[in-house]
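User: what does the whole thing look like in 3D?
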Amino acid sequence: MVSDLQKKIERYEELIKLGQLTSSSLDIKQIQKKACTSIAKLLDCEKVLLYRKEEKLQEVVYRYQIDHNIEEVRFAIDEHSFVGACAHYLATLSINNVKMDIRKKRESDLVKSLKPKNILLFPLVSKGELIGVVEAINSNKGGFDEEDVHFSEAIANELTTTLLNALLFEKQQRMFIQVVESLADAIGKKDAYTGGHTKRVRHFAEMIGKEMELNFNEMNDLLLASVLHDIGKIGIEDSILKKRAPLTDSEFEIMKSHPALGHEILKKIEGLENVVDGMRFHHERPDGKGYPFGLKDGEIPVIASIISVADTFDAMISTRPYRKGLPPMVAYEEILKYSGTQFDTAVVAAFERWFKKSRMYKDSTLVSQRKAS
Ligand SMILES: [Fe+2]
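Assistant: Here's the predicted 3D structure for the full assembly of 373 residues, as C-alpha cells:
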C-alpha cells in the first residue's frame, strides 16, 4: 500500500516537473528532450518519442540528433501507421501486442530497432488542433495498463501547455529579429554595400555559432547582435557612408565611431547587455590593434569575435561601388591567414569547419579548377 502511495506521489511530482519545464528554459529542443525523459519515468517505459505537427503539412515529425546531424522520422496523418492513426483520430492508442498489428510494418527503423512489444500513443491537442503525438515504447511492467492510459491525459495537458509556451516564445523571438533586421537593413541601404549585408552576417554568424555549440541564450544574443552590429552607422553622415570611393584617414576615424554610437543607442535597453557588447566590440582584435578600445585576446566576448569574422568575410566577398567582391574561397583563406591576430583562433576554426561543408567551398574549388584547366 505504502509503496503504491509512494509511487503515486512520485508520479505527480514528476508531472509537476513536466509542467515547469518552460520555467528553466525556453529552448524548444531542450524542452522536448527533457519532456521525453520525464514521460519515460512517468510511464515507466523504455523510450519516449515526441512528434511535432508540421505546419501546413499533413505530417508529424520527430527530430533527433546523432553526433552533429539532425535525423528525422516522419509520418503522414492517416490510419496506416501507429503514429499517423493517433494523429488522424486525435485518440489515445494502447497497443499491447505490436506483433499482431498490421500497422507495425509502417513503424520507423528507429522504433523497430527497439523491438517494440507494446506501445502507448497519445495526441497533444489544443483547441481541437493537433500539436503533436507522444509515442511511449515498451512498458517495464510488460504492458501499458488503464492507469497509464488515464495518466497520459494529464501528461498531454501539461505538455501541450509547455510546448505552446515555448512555441509562442520562439515565434515572438523570430518576429522580433525580423523587425530589427528590417530596421538594420534600412540603415544598410544608406551604406555602400550592395544590400543584404545584415542578413548574410547573421547567417554566417549563426553557422559559426552552431559549430561552436553555443547554448540557446548565447545563440539568441548572437543573432540579435549580428543583426544590430552596425546600428551605430545611423549616426554617420551620408557623405562618408555613401562614398563611392575608399575612405580617407580622417573619414575612417569618423567611421570608427559607429560601435560607440551603437552603444549610445542601445545601452538603456534592459536585458540586451550581451547583445550590446557583441555589437560594441565587433571591431576589436586579439592582437590589440582593433577599435575602439584596443582590447586583447581573452577580453573580447565570443559573440563579438564571431561577428568580426562573419562581418569581415561578408565585406570581402561583397562588391562595392569602387571594387569587385573577392571569390569566397579567397576570402576564406584570408580569414584563416589572420587567425590569432585579427581573429579569434577558436572562432576561425569553427568558421573553417562550417565553410568546408558549405556550397561556397565546393563551388569555389570547381571554379578554380575550371580556371586552371
Ligand atoms: Fe562595423
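In plain terms: Strands lie at 45-53, 59-66, 69-76, 93-95, 119-126, 129-139. The chain has two domains: 2-167, 189-372.
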